[in-house]
Amino acid sequence: QVQLAESGGGLVQAGGSLRVSCAASGRSFSTYAVGWFRQAPGKDREFVAAISWSGSTTFYADSVKGRFTISRDNAKNMVMVYLQMNSLKSEDTAVYYCATAPRVGVSSTLYSGWGQGTQVTVSS
Fold first, then answer.
1. Contact 8, 118 (CB under 8 A)
2. What is the pLDDT of residues 70-110, one digit of tens each?
């Protein structure tokens, strides 16, 4: 069973940077793709970025391309997936979630094992 936990959210001014992390433990997690999604108040959950199990393939939403970078560190017992967010905008304000999938993709239907989320607030 895979367990996910997001951390690193907070309050940042527009134009600033923040890195959120997803800690994952469990059998065979290193072979899973990981995706980041976000949900702003009153809006549907949307795709942000995803990375394959090896880290060789990444996808980004158009709205974050060039500003956000996803990466992962596959250790033996704990896998970390990071989302480095630069040039933040007020519209990036949301709860950010990570989840796993058997293959990398952009659809939330591929993913499961959602964490509790971490709040990112960008002040203008």
1. yes
2. 999 987 778 899 999 999 999 999 999 999 999 999 999 99
Q: Which structure tokens are listed for 54?
A: 């090896």
Neighbour count for residue 62 (Cβ, 10 Å)? 6
Inter-residue contact 117 to 95 (CB < 8 Å): yes
Q: In this structure, what token pair is assigned to residue 104?
A: 């990398």
For β-strands 18-25 and 68-74, DSSP reports them as unpaired
| E strands, the chain, in order | 3-7, 10-13, 18-25, 33-39, 46-51, 58-60, 68-74, 79-85, 94-101, 118-123
Contacts of 41 (CB under 8 A, 6+ apart): none
Residue 122 neighbours by CB under 8 Å, 6+ apart: 11, 12, 13, 14, 16, 88, 89, 90, 91, 92, 93
AA letter at 74: N
Which residue reads 């702003």 in tokens?
40
